[in-house]
């Protein structure tokens, strides 16, 4: 692998967590013309560090290649926008923010979150590496830097007079290959008495729920609370509180402060560390045995698709998330098995999924073709999708999720 030492503790990586073979970049959607050309596939092989137990991928492609032009826009999910608005309400009250405060978000995407602070006349700054997505945020009145975040950019921003009362790093930690440079930047950009929140999918849930599809090249690392604490502590940052939240199949929200200004550590921090230990996250064998469970899951998926074919039923997909592309490529589901998927985002419609080349259509195609089953690929949004597309039940159609457990809904 390109990265033979651990990102956090630099120990040699020798233990496989999960080898998913080769796969294209999960967000490298194809145009009709690109289907006539060769598509790059890369090893999708996750390792676990036997010293700090960080699960991680090798860096097979540069972040610049992956993130400089990105088709994921957060604002196309209504439930995600509700989560963002609730977060803003919580933060304003809990951290006593006002129009003198400065909120800075790293990986701010299309302004989906900062818009709620902006609406309350709180100063905002977004940092977003994908220039096309940063432009959308600027159109909403959110000042946004189209740049990759690290210590150098943090230094530059501080020189320009920026420092955060609230520094937000939600769902970005996994996307960072150089986690020490990233953490050093956070340390520098946070005001002495400021507070930071970091959200990331919890490795405990990936293991418990067999969420193997959340492993893709854009996610370099998969954190437990214990490993996140270790990384942050090396940069003088302390986790003072932690909440379990339902996003992305189960995430943690860390409340972080400078060690020298940290308040009392909440009981929740020790409770989550204890929960991780009770589930074996402090034992290497928990990680090295995971691949056997995933192979059984793949057989279950293939059995379901075989059943659909044998019974002469029709099935289509809903959504074109990155996780769906890991799922379809690893399980070998082609357009012969899944003739099309649909997506709300106009940026993805009329493109093709990487690897499988399954076409992405407008959601209205479901009404036209009336399939027996609709497979929800972004299973973490299943409630939102089932409610907004309940019309499929008019012709007896049913929704299906295959992760974490196979369910016909």
TrEMBL record:
Residues 246-404 form the C-methyltransferase domain. Signal peptide: none annotated. GO terms for molecular function: methyltransferase activity. InterPro entries: Methyltransf_Zn-bd_dom_put, Methyltransf_Zn-bd_dom_put_sf, MeTrfase_14, SAM-dependent_MTases_sf. The keyword Lipid metabolism does not apply. Gene3D superfamilies: 6.10.250.3100, Methyltransferase, zinc-binding domain, NAD(P)-binding Rossmann-like Domain, Vaccinia Virus protein VP39. Keywords: Methyltransferase, Transferase. It comes from the Bacteria. Transmembrane segments: none annotated. GO terms for biological process: methylation. It holds the Pfam family Methyltransf_23. Residues 6-67 form the Methyltransferase putative zinc binding domain. PANTHER family: BLL5978 PROTEIN, TRANS-ACONITATE 2-METHYLTRANSFERASE-RELATED. This is Class I SAM-dependent methyltransferase.
């Amino acid at each position: 692998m390109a990265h033979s030492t651990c990102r956090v503790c630099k120990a040699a990586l020798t233990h496989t967590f999960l080898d998913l073979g080769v796969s294209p970049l999960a967000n490298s959607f194809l145009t009709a013309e690109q289907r006539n050309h060769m598509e790059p596939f890369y090893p999708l092989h996750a390792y676990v560090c036997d010293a700090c137990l960080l699960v991680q991928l090798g860096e097979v492609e540069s972040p610049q290649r992956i993130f400089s032009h990105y088709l994921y826009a957060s604002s196309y999910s209504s439930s995600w926008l509700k989560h963002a608005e609730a977060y803003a309400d919580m933060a304003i009250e809990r951290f006593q923010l006002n129009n003198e405060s400065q909120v800075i978000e790293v990986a701010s995407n299309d302004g989906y979150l900062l818009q709620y602070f902006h609406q309350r006349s709180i100063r905002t700054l977004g940092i977003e590496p994908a220039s096309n997505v940063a432009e959308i945020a600027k159109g909403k009145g959110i000042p946004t830097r189209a740049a990759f975040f690290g210590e150098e950019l943090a230094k530059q921003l501080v020189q320009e007079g920026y420092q955060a009362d609230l520094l937000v790093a939600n769902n970005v930690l996994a996307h960072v290959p150089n986690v020490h440079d990233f953490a050093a930047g956070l340390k520098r950009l946070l005001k002495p008495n400021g507070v930071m929140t970091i959200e990331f999918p919890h490795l405990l849930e990936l293991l418990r729920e067999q969420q193997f599809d959340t492993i893709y090249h854009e996610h370099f690392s998969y954190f437990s609370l214990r490993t996140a604490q270790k990384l942050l502590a090396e940069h003088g940052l302390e986790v003072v509180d932690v909440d379990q939240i339902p996003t992305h199949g189960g995430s943690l929200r860390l409340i972080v402060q400078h060690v020298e200004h940290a308040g009392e550590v909440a009981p929740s921090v020790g409770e989550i560390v204890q929960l991780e230990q009770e589930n074996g996250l402090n034992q290497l064998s928990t990680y090295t045995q995971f691949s056997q469970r995933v192979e059984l899951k793949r057989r279950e998926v293939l059995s379901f698709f075989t059943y659909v074919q044998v019974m002469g039923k029709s099935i289509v997909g809903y959504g074109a998330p990155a996780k769906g592309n890991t799922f379809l490529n690893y399980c070998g589901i082609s357009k012969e098995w899944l003739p099309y998927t649909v997506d709300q985002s106009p940026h993805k419609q009329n493109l093709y999924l990487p690897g499988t080349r399954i076409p992405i259509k407008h959601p209205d195609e479901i009404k036209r073709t009336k399939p027996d089953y609709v497979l929800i690929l972004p299973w973490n949004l299943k409630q939102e999708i089932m409610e907004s597309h309940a019309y499929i039940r008019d012709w007896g159609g049913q929704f299906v999720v295959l992760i974490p457990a196979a369910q016909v809904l």
